[in-house]
Amino acid sequence: MRQLQFVEKGKLEWRDAPEPKLEGDGEAVVRPVALATCDIDVAFVQGRFPAQAFPFGHECVAEVTDVGDSVSSVKPGDLVSVPFQISCGECAACRAGRTGNCESVSRLSTYGLPIGDDYGGFASDAVKVPYPDAMLVQIPDGVSPTTVASLSDNIPDAWRCVAPALADQPGASVLIAMGAGSIALYSIAIALALGAERVDVVGGSERDRELAAELGANVLDEEFPTRAGFYPVTVDASADPAGINCVLKSTDADGICTSIGIYLEPTPLPLLDMFTQGITFMTGRPHVRTLMPDVLELIREGKFDPDPMTVNRVDWDDAAEALSDLRAKTVVSRN
To answer: Which of 139, 200, 275, 292 could cross-link 79 (Cys pair, CB 3.0–4.6 Å)?
Structure first.
């Protein structure tokens, strides 16, 4: 079968790979039909994050093609979203909702990233799923695979930035520092869908600032100010020291700040402001499988549409060339 490989900065290639086969009753094989690029994929392709060669793609909707005898939740022909993190659903971490730290697999085991064990990538003709009853999420009728291709990672990541805080403080205002990609934009749309009084944004590219306004956000400073005001809910999606400094200083007393930015170098934080305001600061990888049903329901109800965040749409056979020049959220789909 064909599998798309990240080779080096600015270069992806189709290569032959062994076709996955069922090796146990509790496994499934799926055929990806819609692939979305993650914000971190842009950094890999542009050489901003160093990486060795790896199978590409960790966000997808797929068709189930084969299942083991003990699999009960899906059957061949079903359309499913496959979370990028491997999780068994049975260990103590999974039962507690911490599916990104499943105890049944090696730490950081994922699809399509150069970390943990190699489970392959979603830019492939077929992918094996080791725990399908725990992992796979069925796509409801009427929801397009390309619309929810990013449900495997970026959309739930955006959900966790705003949904828990808004559940605790309904109608709260939100500040988002943009700059690291689509998660900031998904966060805007989700926050407004969940009833945020307003969403203000700072930073970001010209394209992202224009789209933020179209989504209903108030677009403030292009450069990150020292403080943008005081907000009960803040989000650092900037991956910029000035951005995280801004939102931390702008988090109101007893507020919540969530950072999804990945900082490769030590980054100073305004700890005195954080201490004085008594804020809660959240960072780290999302536990995607736990979050997927809630955000999918918001999409099914028509309250949140991920489609505007997709900048480019590419046919499957054109993926190698198109993704070698990856610059923004792209969805690749089979005809």
So the answer is: 139
Domain with 304, as residue range(s), is 2-153+288-333
What percent helix, strand, coil does the chain show, rounded to 5?
30, 25, 45
- Among 315, 324, 288, 286, which Cα is nearest to 151's? 288
- For residues 272 and 295, state if they share a domain: no
Nearest to 46 by CA among 4, 14, 5, 8: 8
Q: How much is the pTM?
A: 0.96
Mean predicted confidence (pLDDT) in 156-175: 98
Both tokens of 128, joined, read 């094996």
Flag whether pLDDT at 135 surpasses 90. yes
Q: Which of 236, 270, 265, 27 is nearest to 130 (CA)?
A: 27
Helices (H) and strands (E) in the chain, counts: 10, 16
Residue 2 has, within 13 A of its CA and on its CB side, a CA count of 10
Q: Considering only CA atoms, give the Rg of the chain.
A: 19
pLDDT of residue 70: 97
Residue 281: count of CB within 10 angstroms of its CB: 18
How many other CB atoms are found less than 10 A from the CB of residue 251?
A: 27
Structure tokens at 209: 């600032």
The DSSP symbol for 90 reads -
Type of residue found at 257: C
Q: One-letter amino acid identity for 136?
A: L
Average pLDDT (92-117) is 95
Q: In this structure, are 55 and 142 located in the same domain? A: yes
Is the separation of the CB atoms in 299 and 306 below 8 Å? yes
Q: Look-up: residue for tokens 């970001």?
A: 204
